[in-house]
Design goal:
The protein is mostly beta strands. About 0% of the residues lie in helices and about 40% in strands. The chain has a domain of about 210 residues: Methylamine Dehydrogenase, Chain H (7 Propeller), CATH 2.130.10.10. It has 1 helix and 29 strands. The strands form 7 sheets. It has a 5-stranded antiparallel β-sheet with strand order 8-9-10-11-16, with no helix packed on it. A 5-stranded mixed β-sheet has the order 12-13-14-17-15. Strands 18-19-20-21-25 form a 5-stranded mixed β-sheet, with no helix packed on it. Strand 18 and strand 19 form a beta hairpin. The longest helix is centred in the middle third of the chain and has 8 residues. Keywords: Repeat, Ubl conjugation pathway, WD repeat. This is DDB1- and CUL4-associated factor 10. Pathway: Protein modification; protein ubiquitination.
């Protein structure tokens, strides 16, 4: 968060640390995990967490990198995502076992920390918390986006204890189960994602439960959406990457068709407001901007991101990255919301890699961008406009 260190998750068990100002290599954690390292999340300016295909999460302290603070065991398949609620100091992880697990870092010891299974869904790809931690978004390889509203991480979700608020298009009740259910492993990031086209209405049991509730939406109310994707109206799609606007105004998705012949970056505005009925609010997301991507490096997930002020998007594009804006002047999203979905504007393209770029990240404090490609090269940019 203070921009003193750039951390890089690598496919072969390593974590690399760089000084982003001098671009010098600081340290390599050569055996950070026993399998591919997938994601890194800073909890504060010194403590960070890594997750891996070895099914574990590790906590590290920048002041003592020779050993882990602790290793967390709880997932049964590849762990792909880490989030952190700074208010409660709860760590939230998700994996291809379909589980979202909550870890109480307030009671962390060398042997780990207390944890509980919070939520489960099949085909889980990515999980994110909004900046104010009021919502949890979960994307799936079957094209569904799940939103838990009025999030309460301290509340355990039992079978049928959360009401379904709305299902846009179609969904399957077998895809959404509670924390007590077990599920099969999802697809691996390396290799073609598993695309599933599920159908069928929500179960009458869930609908009757939600329809019986009165008043405003209760905590952890579940909304099920199939986000509109250009060119994919009649075909399924896989939501591979999921990010949130830093001010909580929108969500950013990278989607690929179920035949892997098209790839899109899409921005969806959060639509807040009074529900039409207490248990059936209007659809929470509206497609505002989109752009077609290069669709290279099929089977690999490309992680994109917002700039710290939310005015730009950095998106992997072939052997480089594209800086995209909502208009040509990098205006705020709220100042240029179109009535219908409009193309994202390409502000600048940056190419310095000799292989497919898989990830990109803005510095939280300076005009600097990092990108990493499949062959292992990390590039730092200071773009001039």
């Amino acid at each position: 968060p203070c921009r003193s260190v750039l951390t890089v998750a690598c496919e072969q068990t390593e974590v690399l640390l760089f000084d982003p100002i001098s671009s010098k290599h600081i340290k390599t954690l050569s055996e950070a995990h026993e399998d591919c390292v997938n994601n890194i999340r800073f909890l504060d300016n010194r403590l960070f967490a890594t997750c891996s295909d070895d099914t574990t999460i590790a906590l590290w302290d920048l002041r003592k990198l020779n050993t882990k603070v602790c290793t967390l065991h709880g997932h049964t398949s590849w762990v792909k995502n880490i989030e952190y609620d700074t208010n409660t100091r709860l760590l939230v992880t998700s994996g291809f076992d379909g589980n979202v697990i909550i870890w109480d870092t307030n009671r962390c010891t060398e042997d780990g920390c207390p944890h509980k299974k919070f939520f489960h869904t099949r085909f889980l790809m990515r999980m994110r918390l909004t900046p104010d931690c009021s919502k949890m978004l979960i994307s799936t390889s079957s094209g569904y986006l799940l939103i838990l509203h009025d999030l309460d991480l301290n509340k355990s979700l039992e079978v049928g204890s959360y009401p379904i608020l709305r299902a846009r298009r179609t969904t399957s009740s077998s895809d959404i189960t509670s924390s007590g259910s077990s599920g099969s492993s999802g697809p691996r990031a390396v290799g073609s994602p598993c695309h599933q086209n599920d159908s069928g209405p929500l179960s009458e049991k869930h609908m009757s439960r939600s329809s019986q509730r009165e008043g405003g939406s209760p905590r952890n109310s579940l909304e099920v959406l199939t986000p509109e994707v250009p060119g994919e109206r009649d075909r399924g799609n896989c939501i591979t990457s999921l990010q949130l606007h830093p001010k909580g105004w929108a969500t950013l998705l990278r989607c690929s068709s179920n035949t892997d012949d098209q790839e899109w970056t899409c921005v969806y505005e959060f639509q807040e407001g009074a529900p039409v009925r207490p248990v059936s609010p209007r659809c929470s997301l509206r497609l505002t901007h989109c752009i077609e991507e290069a669709n290279v490096g099929r089977g690999y997930i490309k992680e994109l991101c917002f700039s710290p002020d939310g005015r730009m998007i950095s998106s992997p594009h072939g052997f480089g990255i594209r800086l995209l804006g909502f208009d040509a002047h990098c205006s705020e999203l709220v100042d240029c919301l179109p009535k219908e979905a409009s193309p994202l504007k390409e502000i600048r393209s940056l190419y310095s890699h000799n292989d497919v770029v898989l990830t990109t990240k803005f510095s939280p404090t300076h005009c600097q961008i990092a990108s990493g490609c499949l062959s292992g090269r990390v590039s730092l940019y200071q773009p001039k406009f």
